[in-house]
């Protein structure tokens, strides 16, 4: 028997439809699936501990070989509602931006937007000891994923980074895509893609299994805020984003 393809996927709610699709499909017998934070998905693919990852697209720049293996992604057209800068002062007045240790794409997106949209240059800190807890009014923070659910009303200044990216470029955004670090058998890729699509088509079942979060509309999130199709304009956005990162 040939060995299983090792796959790392994001452990957040945004990926639950994909996980559902993979786990309700015969392809589950061909893969070893692990669920990780986005930054760990990226590191595992870079370190060749997995063959395919739903990796933050910013990490593509750290891969000597990479190949997109699916028509689906974690993306958004306008506001995504789970990737924010939370701040106690207007962003233009912040002295420090704490980055999210679980993120690669959104930390870079924040840097790109600070430079090119808000045109400011606050100090940027990763792994801050008081991450997301600072009481300094001039300290803001980037946060992604389920930890942001319901937090939008807790801060006086809240910036949705996919929405701000759209204001800067007119484009949608891709946070994470299914990327391989080696050539993958086309038959497998086709079956993998089919399983992911089946998961998206089963979002009602996924919603029925999920807990509810106070102050957060999960149905709206999975159907309308996230956009899972890796369309040509999202690929254009991906390339544009990588160019912006290189210029930081
Ligand atoms: C929309 C999101 O997209 C994500 C953000 C990522 C990042 O910032 O590196 C990576 C994967 C996705 O989980 C989110 O996590 O809320």
From TrEMBL:
Q: Which EC number(s) does the record attach to this protein? A: 4.2.1.151
| One Pfam family recorded for the sequence | VitK2_biosynth
What InterPro entries does UniProt report for this protein, alphabetically? Menaquinone_biosynth, MqnA
Tell me the enzyme class: lyase
Pathway in which this enzyme or protein is active: Quinol/quinone metabolism; menaquinone biosynthesis
**GO molecular function terms listed in the Swiss-Prot or TrEMBL record:** hydro-lyase activity
- Catalysed reaction, written as an equation: chorismate = 3-[(1-carboxyvinyl)-oxy]benzoate + H2O
Key word Lyase present in the record? yes
State the Gene Ontology BP annotations: menaquinone biosynthetic process
Q: Which UniProt keywords apply?
A: Lyase, Menaquinone biosynthesis
**Entry's family note:** Belongs to the MqnA/MqnD family. MqnA subfamily.
Q: What does this protein do?
A: Catalyzes the dehydration of chorismate into 3-[(1-carboxyvinyl)oxy]benzoate, a step in the biosynthesis of menaquinone (MK, vitamin K2).
The protein's name in its UniProt record: Chorismate dehydratase
Q: Lineage in the entry?
A: Bacteria, Pseudomonadati, Bacteroidota, Sphingobacteriia, Sphingobacteriales
């Amino acid at each position: 028997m040939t060995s299983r393809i090792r796959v790392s996927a994001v452990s957040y709610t945004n990926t639950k439809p994909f996980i559902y699709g993979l786990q309700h499909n015969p392809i589950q017998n061909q893969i070893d699936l692990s669920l990780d934070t986005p930054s760990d998905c990226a590191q595992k693919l870079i370190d060749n501990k997995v063959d395919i990852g739903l990796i933050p697209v910013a990490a593509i720049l750290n891969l000597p070989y990479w190949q997109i293996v699916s028509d689906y992604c974690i993306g958004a057209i306008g506001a995504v509602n789970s990737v924010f800068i939370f701040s106690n002062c207007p962003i233009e007045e912040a002295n420090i931006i704490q980055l999210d240790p679980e993120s690669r794409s959104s930390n870079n997106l924040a840097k790109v937007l600070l430079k090119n949209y808000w045109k400011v240059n606050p100090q940027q800190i990763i792994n801050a000891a008081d991450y997301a807890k600072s009481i300094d009014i001039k300290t803001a923070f980037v946060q992604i994923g389920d930890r942001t659910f319901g937090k939008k009303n807790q801060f006086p200044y809240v910036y949705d980074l996919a929405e701000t990216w759209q204001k800067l470029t007119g484009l949608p955004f891709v946070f994470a895509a299914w990327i391989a670090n080696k050539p993958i058998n086309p038959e497998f890729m086709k079956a993998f893609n089919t399983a992911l699509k089946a998961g998206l088509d089963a979002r009602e079942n996924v919603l029925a299994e999920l807990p509810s979060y106070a102050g957060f509309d999960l149905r709206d999130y999975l159907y309308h805020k996230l956009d899972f199709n890796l369309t040509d304009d999202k690929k254009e956005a991906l390339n544009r984003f990588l160019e912006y990162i290189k210029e930081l």
